[in-house]
Design a protein that fits this description.
- Strands 1, 2, 3, 5, 9 and 12 form a six-stranded antiparallel beta sheet that branches. A six-stranded mixed beta sheet has the order 4-11-10-6-8-7, with no helix packed on it.
- The two termini are 23 Å apart.
- The chain is an all-beta fold.
- It is globular, with a radius of gyration of 16 Å.
Length: 205
Amino acid sequence: MNAPLRRLLAACSLLALMAVSAAVLAPSAWAQSTPVQKPADKPPVKSVRSIPYVSITGEDGKQRHYETNAIPLLFNRACFGWRMYLGGPNRVVSLKEVLTTSSPAEQVIAGPETEVSADKTRATTRMLETVQDGVLQRSWCIIPGDPPGTYTYDISIDGEPRGEFVFCAIEVPNQDPNTDPRELNCPNKFNSVERTRPPRLRAPS
């Protein structure tokens, strides 16, 4: 895999699946619900909306974006990512992202902020990231050697678990660049819709 928009191909902590993250816009978008009861001395916990997405560069060179968790294994064309709506002011937070795959990747490309397990099934990234306009997001891209199966991202912010993103990576034998992820068969597939605007990733400060 390879990290697309930010530090393309290397810095973004890339696991041969070149790391990224995701569990968004599932048929029901994942959200951290606010507890019904909380200790009086603690402020209420705000809901967090998480959205998984897939982007594909088609034969026409245009990038199409889908809110889905079905990833076609289109080498150097498909990317998958997650975004979380945290709200609040622009700020820097401590991010821990753990990407786990059901099978090992053939190759791993990782920056210094990413630790890859010996069996190449887990990439743990620890870094400072900027919440911009209430949003935090990251993405990774598919490269040769990325395996089919389940990809799971566990996200913690400032030491607190905030979400899990589960993707289904599916082989595309003919590598058709115009593959529509909405037509793929996936055991844990979420409903998906095409995005009108691509998600924007900010370069690290």
